[in-house]
């Protein structure tokens, strides 16, 4: 009755980038070469004096200090005031950042039409981040009518100037068929451009497509390469899928030690399936020394996030008293949780436990 379950099957978790605008780029203040500024607030008096004289660089830097709270309390109102001063003089990066504030309603009343106008002005000066923001506005119809062709054109221009998320977004559009005809091969081309700039999400999609042979030739070595690149940049789904490839020996020799390493990385980042899998590995001593207490710790983390397999295994541990103090009540609790998700084995175990309780009365 109390058989334990083993590793979860791989999943190919596919995400879509839903961001409406790009975050403003934090830029260092224009300090003379060789000077390190520990407290940017000391610059405020001189910057304010220059800003009040109409110097756009000083206005922008002062706005940046207030927006990021560099040595002072964050003040979006003051940031918006000084960005506008610089923006009105034609400074593209000030126009872009002011557009972000209007998009979020920070320091100003939210106004998507004004945000679009400022992005448009900055993009006309070839500022890549503004081109990206404007592309998102056209794509999603934010502050303007939808214009997919214009959106793709702007994404392409931003991507050529190093905004990897721009190439990623076009790839996602073709991958999912979002406002364009779905074309996985075209998606792969755009993902490749973003991946070359180190975009971990694009690397992940290329890995999934290589593993499945979806839109490109199936190539397990390429899948491992791109999963590794994405995982080493902290992309959690890539860590998990890489662990699966090493655990199952897909495209490589089985390697439980590497599987355990990547499951641990993903588990520590909060991935429930990885938490369950590393729990199993501690349970059976695969890739790590057997440690039933650690297995239970990971089962608990995964179970609390809703992993039905972890809930089931945790119930078994409580019932048998392995790695944790025997507790029939907790076993019933976790079998119930798993049963509520439709797990047939949990239902059977729960029914037997409750029947035995009834017979004992």
Automatic annotation (TrEMBL):
Q: Where is the signal peptide?
A: 1-22
Q: Which UniProt keywords apply?
A: Signal
Record's Pfam families?
Sel1
Question: Cross-referenced Gene3D superfamilies, in alphabetical order?
Answer: Tetratricopeptide repeat domain
Give the matching PANTHER family.
ERAD-ASSOCIATED E3 UBIQUITIN-PROTEIN LIGASE COMPONENT HRD3 (PTHR11102:SF160), SEL-1-LIKE PROTEIN (PTHR11102)
Q: What protein am I looking at? A: Uncharacterized protein
Q: Which organism is it from?
A: Orbus sasakiae
